[in-house]
Amino acid sequence: MTHGRDPDYLRKEQYATDGNLRARIAVHERFSTSPMGFPRWMFNVVLEAPAEAKVLEVGCGNGQIWAKCATLVPPGWELVLTDLSKGMVDQARRRLDTLPRAPGFGVADVRSLPFPEGRFDLVLANYMLYHVPDLQEGVRELARVLRPGGRLLAATNGQGHMREMDELEQLLGTDPDREHLSFTCENGGEVLGCSFRSVRFLPYTDSLEITEAEAAVRYVLSRVPKETATPEALSALRREVERRIDGGAGLLHVTKDTGIFVASEPIR
Ligand SMILES: C[S@@+](CC[C@H](N)C(=O)[O-])C[C@H]1O[C@@H](n2cnc3c(N)ncnc32)[C@H](O)[C@@H]1O
């Protein structure tokens, strides 16, 4: 199993705290070419937020969506946030203690959700299904906890996402983790189609233009196990990032290939 699909590695190292995720989010916030940002795009373009709803987010990370879109959350929403990592849930709880209606929180693996059948109107599973080893088991759980008229939103990346970062990561002597290939923009419709009668995909257009070498280096380091970055490998990485920024008229262009699936009519 690649480390990106190993629940122990994810819980104990990659997502033990929100440090790695925060490092990547910071790069997206500073250097993305799309002015709206993914969370607001999801709320404004995809969500069609009803006034009242029971909403679950699985793999919630540090709760960034709700922190960024706090003013867009209808007061009639009952929100529950869960994640495999306790460190993430603790961080999300701390971060969201100012929301007008306090969310519920829980540590849970998406493959075994502690909720009854049909409990939620809307479930979000953003940028997390590719981490799940038994993907269909996780997708079946998402279908189970949705009410028959409910919807699942599941954001993910395509095969070309961040390919420049993959090239840079190879300088650390590891093969970039291709775990996201288990659930991509390309194959996600087929994966979700086993548990939902209706699935559509909305692409999100964006890219990165990074002007600061150290930010790109931090991004690469946030994706790999700690022991990977020997001092020699790190210098090679820094040199290459600087070379690419200089050769790119002061910026490193990074491809984003991403979007969101909207699935409904769960099959039980
Ligand atoms: C890339 S982060 C995405 C966080 C958040 N959804 C976002 O968009 O900012 C992936 C998250 O999925 C969680 N995760 C990984 N495997 C999981 C599983 N089997 N069940 C629940 N959460 C999981 C990780 O702990 C991590 O917080």
The largest sheet is: 7 strands, mixed
Counting helices, strands and paired strands, the structural category is alpha/beta
Mean of residue pLDDT values: 92
Count the E strands.
Answer: 9
Distance linking N and C termini = 29 Å
Helix content: 25-40%
What's the structural domain tally? 1
Tell the overall outline: globular
Entry keywords:
268 residues, alpha/beta, Rossmann fold, seven-stranded mixed beta sheet, two-stranded antiparallel ribbon, 10 helices, 36% helix, globular, binds S-adenosylmethionine
Secondary structure elements and pairings:
Layout: H1 7-14, H2 19-31, H3 38-46, E1 52-57, H4 64-68, E2 76-83, H5 86-95, E3 104-107, E4 120-124, H6 135-145, E5 146-157, H7 163-169, H8 188-193, E6 196-204, E7 207-210, H9 213-222, H10 231-247, E8 252-255, E9 258-266
Parallel strand pairs: 1-2, 1-4, 2-3, 4-5
Antiparallel strand pairs: 5-9, 6-9, 7-8
Bound molecules: S-adenosylmethionine.
